[in-house]
Amino acid sequence: MRRRASLVLLAAAVFCAALSPLLRWYAFPRLAKVPPSQYQSVVMEAKDADLIDYNKMEARKVPRVDIVQTLKGNVEQARKVKDATGRDVVVWDTLSYIVGPDGKMVSRIPERYVFDAHSQEPVHAGGESVDGTPVRRDGIEYKWPFLTEKRDYQYFDMQTRTSAPIHYRGTQNFHGLKVYYFEQTIPWTKVPLPKKMPLGVTPEVVKQTGLERWYSTKRMFWVDPVTGAPVNGEEQHKEEMRWTGHPEKKPITAFAGHVKMRPDYVESTLKLVKSQRVLVLLLTSYLPWGFLGLGFVLLALSLVLEARSRRPGAGAAPAEDPAAPDPEPVPV
Question: Is the pTM of this model over 0.85?
Fold first, then answer.
């Protein structure tokens, strides 16, 4: 009986030991993916910023500029791309909407970002674009891969429509969560004007006045390494209107400020990321190590039972003592 139980325990131990790497290396890469229908909005703000006044074509100091970023998964478009490519993809339609202190629009720039749902690598299909202009992305944008590594990544900059390295600068503690800090600096670069600007101003009108738009930023992200989701982001953002062909003329500051995520959105983002990281850890750590540990325990129990079953006389009836006296007859 003990030997039969030891064989059952041994089979269970082998099953648990085999299941552990399968969960980590087979199930996780296939099950962990960004949902195609995700919707998220974030409000960022730049206090005491410089902002252009298009009526006077000069910069003025304003108490605050808000940047509203919305991200919406386009399920129908993702389905079309999957049918065409055979890959699980996510299509994000995003919008960066800048609002001045008077509540009026300063600019709005829509984007379409298509990427692999598992690896977050860009997929060149489905109408990748920035402000209606087709682009071809290299590297990541908005989100890092699951299980982010301590290394540099290529990060797409929507203003320049190009990718550049974003550098890993160390591990930090952010609101009790261990995060990786990344930093990217974009040098002064001539960039297109937004197609939507206030007061009916258009890129053509600005060009006719002899001005062109230049941009520079220092981009900072605090990323949860488990989910690859940023829990905080900041930018030291600068934009100038420069006189075409006249570098001696003083440029007009279009926007300059330290952009930070609003505190209430930091808290809500942290709450969301902490709930999602548990699901990733189940497949990468908790369950694989748990099954492996259980396998060792079951193996140890199996060996113990097997050893006991092999003892001489184990399980047999006790032998009679030859020196014991014969039993007395029972009177009838």
Answer: yes
